[in-house]
Write a structure and sequence with these properties.
Chain lengths: ~375, ~230
């Protein structure tokens, strides 16, 4: 029997199992190790985000602009040296000199669709089922007009405009070579042509795909000219590996009637030519007159919208938009924010400040100690 | 005075060492008028500018010269930028006893920074005979007191949608195509015609500007150009 404790006696130690102490110290070590690793990861992530941010600001993401518009006038400067092929069935070919057969020279009369006295009108041979392909551009030409591989290629300027009678007219200017392919036969054409699809001739719908140096959709509004852009949209995309479409939309603006939009070749690393197509709908929907549907797509730093009554503005995403659409930067920023939130939530600042080495030493002391020591508050 | 001496010596140098009198100076009539407006005005004139190729855009506005033609007491000087933002229109009185001499037009703009940013293809200048209240098709070919001797007359044209623009001077056997301006905004003008300087010491030249829109002829414009003496 043990008597009641007398005054001056030390209180008896509580006999905590050694294994329990060791487990507690081990768990404490692991916990602090995890917290330390988390803090280290936060600093590493901060570094990664700073580097990604610097890279983003130094080399902003590529912007891809897309124009989709219904217009009555468009101008294209075709890419120099590239060959472009368009089907032109039903066109009256206007040249400043008489062209040889099989093109049929039409009588010169005041009502000629080719207009003034300088121009000779020609009808394309064959019926509606014939295929007439106009080949624009290609290898460089010499001053005499002969194709010369070494000569610098020249760009061709193409203007398209709807006619009041529901038809279409096209002007092709520049020294670039022009050829007409007719049922396996090729015919060289002189530089400078007008192609007229008169409305009463009921031309079929036409599509003109292109790769250009620059594209202008719409026309400056003046009192002497009624041709203009009717409606459309301008969309900015950025390249995105994560997106299924490999691009993600940044912004879209509506174009107003009378706007003029220009998309030009991007001269950054390598040349990025605007591409697209022009579609001529002979009959618009309902009572709408004939129109040109223009779709153009290209890489650029900015695109200019010129609107009647003001000096126009650059449509260009800012640096903040560039940061917001950098998927890598956004992903690591989100991971960083999540880690800070998690660590901040489950551990106080004092816990985060504890060194894993100190916890290791505490574990070692517990492991080596023969008898359990009085319980100390672990920080 | 220093400017006069400098301009005179440059003129002498351009004329092969001939000692020429310093150019006289025209006098501005009324208050100087110029605007810089975001609300772009659309010009209604086909011929927007007539200069020599020595004039290099906004940098030349401080040294503009013309030949004083007998009978004209005033000239109307207009400047219009291609984007339509800058516009000025001022009448200058020519010196009384200056017929046949070079006259400098003092252009004291408050928007020199903007003018300096306009290159040769961005700013059209036109000096027509008479005050700005009266229209005229007699144009002085504006030159610059500095720079090389011009090889051509440059006419800035607002083609109003033409696909082809030509110049023609039957009397001097001059004809050719004008060049479209493909880059940038083309609100005020979209073509320029570099007309070779007429030989034979002509003081005046009649030039026609013809336009076609997809082959259809548009109304032609005839203008009489007064050439500079030093450039003949």
């Amino acid at each position: 029997m043990t008597g009641p404790p007398r005054a001056g006696d030390k209180p008896p130690r509580r006999a905590t199992p050694r294994a329990l102490h060791r487990c507690g110290a081990g768990a404490s070590f692991l916990w602090k190790l995890a917290l330390g690793a988390g803090v280290l990861a936060i600093w590493l992530l901060v570094g990664v985000v700073v580097v990604l941010l610097a890279l983003n600001l130094h080399t902003p993401p590529s912007w891809y602009f897309s124009i989709g518009a219904q217009t009555e006038a468009a101008d294209i400067e075709l890419a120099a040296g590239r060959e472009t092929q368009w089907r032109i069935e039903g066109a009256i070919v206007c040249a400043t000199k008489a062209l040889p057969a099989p093109l049929a020279l039409l009588p010169r009369e005041a009502s000629s669709p080719c207009g003034g006295r300088r121009w000779f009108a020609h009808a394309l041979p064959g019926g509606e089922n014939a295929e007439h392909v106009l080949v624009l551009g290609g290898p460089g030409i010499s001053a005499e007009g002969a194709a010369t591989p070494g000569a610098a290629p020249a760009a061709l300027q193409v203007g398209l405009e709807t006619r009041g009678d529901g038809g279409l007219q096209m002007s092709i200017r520049g020294p670039g070579p022009l050829r007409l392919a007719l049922s396996g036969q090729e015919l060289a054409l002189p530089p400078g042509l007008n192609l007229i699809w008169a409305g009463e001739a009921r031309p079929r719908d036409l599509v003109f795909p292109f790769t250009g140096e620059r594209v202008r959709v719409g026309r400056d509004v003046t009192w002497s000219d009624s041709s203009m852009l009717r409606e459309g949209t301008l969309t900015v995309f950025t390249a995105s590996e994560e997106s299924l479409a490999k691009r993600s939309q940044v912004e879209e603006v509506a174009l107003m009637p009378g706007d003029q939009v220009r998309l030009e070749r991007h001269g950054g690393d390598g040349a990025f030519h605007p591409k697209g197509f022009v579609r001529f709908d002979r009959l618009g929907g309902g009572d709408a007159p004939a129109s040109l549907g223009v779709v153009a797509f290209g890489r650029a730093e900015s695109i200019r919208i010129e609107r009647f009554g003001d000096s126009g503005y650059e449509f260009k995403p800012g640096w903040w938009v560039g940061i917001l659409h950098d998927r890598l930067l956004m992903m690591w920023s989100a991971v960083l924010a999540a880690l800070i939130t998690v660590l901040g939530g489950i551990a106080g600042c004092r816990e985060l400040a504890t060194s894993p080495a100190e916890a290791w030493r505490a574990l070692c002391r517990e492991w080596r100690a023969g008898t359990p020591r009085p319980q100390e508050d672990e920080r | 005075m220093t400017r006069h001496l400098l301009a005179g010596s440059l003129l002498a140098a351009m004329t092969g060492g001939t000692v020429a009198a310093p150019p006289l100076e025209a006098e501005l009539v009324g208050a100087f008028f110029e605007t810089e407006q975001v609300d772009v005005a659309v010009s209604g004139s086909v011929v927007v500018g007539v200069t020599s190729t020595a004039v290099q855009g906004g940098r030349s506005v401080g040294s503009l010269l013309l030949q004083h033609a007998a009978g004209d007491a005033q000239v109307c000087l207009t400047m219009l930028s291609r984007d339509g933002v800058y516009y000025s229109r001022n009448t200058f009185r020519l010196p009384d006893a200056g017929a046949g001499q070079a006259v400098r037009l003092p252009y004291r703009s408050n928007l020199r920074d903007r003018l300096d940013s306009y290159a040769a293809s961005d700013l059209a200048m036109r000096a027509s005979a008479g005050s700005c209240e009266h229209g005229s098709n007699l144009y002085y070919v504006l030159g610059a007191a500095s720079g090389p001797a011009p090889a051509a007359i440059r006419v800035f044209v607002n083609s109003f949608g033409a696909t082809d623009v030509f110049y023609r001077s039957a009397a001097h056997g001059l004809e050719g195509s004008c060049s479209p301006i493909a880059e940038g905004r083309r609100t005020s003008f979209d073509h320029w015609c570099d007309i070779p300087w007429p030989r034979g010491g002509a003081e005046r030249v009649e030039v026609g500007i013809e336009r076609e829109r997809y082959g259809r002829e548009m109304p032609a414009v005839t203008l009489t150009l007064v050439l500079q003496p030093q450039d003949r």
